[in-house]
Amino acid sequence: DRAVFLNLGKKVWELPPEDLPTQGKMAKYLDEARKKTLAWIDSIGDAGLDSQCPGLFPGAANESITTLERIAYALRHLQHHIGELCAYQKQLCLEPAEWH
User: Fold this and answer.
1) How far is CA 89 from CA 5, 20, 40, in A?
2) What is 15-68 written as a DSSP string?
3) CA distances from 26 to 33, 64, 70, 81 (A)
4) Residue 10: CB partners within 8 Å, gap ≥ 6?
5) Contact predicate 5/11, CB 8 Å
6) How confident is the model at residue 38, as a pLDDT?
7) CA atoms of 16 and 29, how far apart (whole Å)
8) pLDDT value of residue 82
């Protein structure tokens, strides 16, 4: 949902550096997002995971995929961006982040 804008005020990429959320604020928000996501998955159950949901790109071949396929796509997409962050850290000779 669009709760990120309520929790952080506006799109993070539009914030000036001095207004970026602290690590603590982000950790709190990510914990809240995790809990909401797990509650949603629990609420739809197996039938909901197997139900059709709109595709990622309307009109594309994958226009109708299951909710479970959408979740798997989102996880792969997240892994991609985590990999990008790790690569940027390495380019800047920074220590790798601790992933919990």
Assistant:
1) 27, 19, 33
2) S-GGGSPPHHHHHHHHHHHHHHHHHHHHHHHHHHHHSEEE-SSTTSTTSEEEHH
3) 10, 33, 24, 17
4) none
5) yes
6) 93
7) 19
8) 87
Residue pair 64/55 in contact (Cβ under 8 Å)? The answer is yes
Q: Does this model's pTM top 0.70?
A: no
Contact 44, 67 (CB under 8 A): yes
Q: What does the radius of gyration of the chain's CA atoms come to, in whole angstroms?
A: 17
pLDDT in tens, 3-62: 666 666 677 778 888 888 888 888 888 898 889 989 999 999 999 999 887 655 555 555
Q: How many CA atoms lie within 13 A of 8 on its CB side?
A: 25
3-state secondary structure of 100: coil
